[in-house]
# Entry
Amino acid sequence: MANDKSSMQLVANGILKENPIFRLALSMCPAVGISTTVMNGFMLGVAVLFVQVCSSLTISMVKKVIHPRIRIPTYTLTIATWVTVIDMVLAAYMPEAYAKMGIFVKLIVAFAIITMRLEMFACKEPVGASFWDGLGMGLGFMIGMMTIGLVRELLGSGAILGYDVLGFKPLLFFILPSAGFFVVGLMMAFFNYIELYYKRKKGFKS
Amino acid sequence: MKNIITIIIRLTLSCLLAAFVMGIFFVMTSKAKKHNEHVNEEKVMYSLLGYKVGAPVPETVKLYAVYRYIVTDPAGKSIGYLVPTGQGAETGFSFIILDLDGKLIEQKPVTVTADDAAEAESRDKAIKAALGAGKEAVYADDKTIIVTDNGARTAYLLSGKFAGFKASISVMLALKTDFGIRGLAIVEHEEDPGLGAEIEKGYFKNQFIGKSFATLKTLDVVKEPLPDAYAKAMEGVKGEDGGKILEQYKDHAIYALTGATISSRAVTNGVKGTVAKFAYRINILDNVLKEQHIVVPF
# Structure
């Protein structure tokens, strides 16, 4: 099955059309768990981006030798390896960031979005396309996390990137994990609305 | 059958490959990681003692570490301390074993270099060699650092770990020689960001600074709004009477964090417990050292 999309289309697909958080609604657990500030979202996004791209590349490269009956263990092993690598690298070279999000980095092993991309895309497509797809998905996740982080940080702590902008804390509730669901839900509705709006404008039926 | 063998071979190969990649990265990063931990600990220690990062520490200031062990032998359990001994050029290490009533059982010289004593693995080995067969020493994860200036004790640095709201909180405390609190640093915690995580902010943890040992014994947590002037003074905003305000609240109860009473209580009780236990232990150790005329550099 050859892929007829260009590399840029694949990246855009991951960011917009199939955004892991807002459109596919995958990996919600970290999305609500750690996206309390923009910086946290960004850091976890970078880690996921790295793991997604590396895993996609690896699986795409060895797709011919993977026994079809044991795909899933191989995927898990690949993801776990790259997560361990980034975990060790972060702990060694960025200790301050790691102290804040260490436990969530280890959780990337269980992220549905990565396994799903390997199964849906990397195990069928050539190496180049898998790289762009992984990049798009990773970026989509990162942007999603940062957007949620922005809303929650602003409403919960009255700050952006740690700088106090409002001078007061509007709603303490938004810091708590449960508020993550509200933010994700509201933003999903928002993005769906925008999509519908543009479709109607172009004259498509919704 | 053929399928089973292919699956086994391929999975084994993937595992080996994965292990190889992880191994390479582990070797590459382990040194940097250890270095980080060490640097971080030193930074916390010196900032607690009031030395700013980058500023030189006077040469007269020396840090001596005391490690506590639990010793098990057929007769029962006892407590062991690894202490540096001797003064001037003749320095070494001794393992002092006390019974549960605080009486000396025996003192054994331990041959270990200062660098090796700082590493848990080589330290355990040296102590095992010194104790000989029949006795087993287990590190109680309790390291106290005694700070001296010109040979006189100026402060204690101790680490504590206690239960927080969900997971445990690790702290480092700097105490004066009369066990009053000189500084508190939150080393590790998993409190809720924005609520319990505020324990690491200056306006909460600095409330402990200046609390005397007697105040600490009955220290309570109150759910009252934190006075603005006090918060500013603790955050280090230079006001005209910052010192005076800190003095005024010196014996006041701890103001709980908004929305995080449990975390505030946990830290307060944890600090109280850590200091009380430490004061008890160091007094016993000091008594023994004095009675037995063991020469120590601190």
About this structure: The mean pLDDT of chain B is 83. Strands of chain B lie at 61-73, 76-85, 92-98, 104-110, 136-149, 152-163, 168-175, 181-188, 221-222, 254-255. The radius of gyration of chain B is 23 Å. The longest strand of chain B covers residues 136-149.
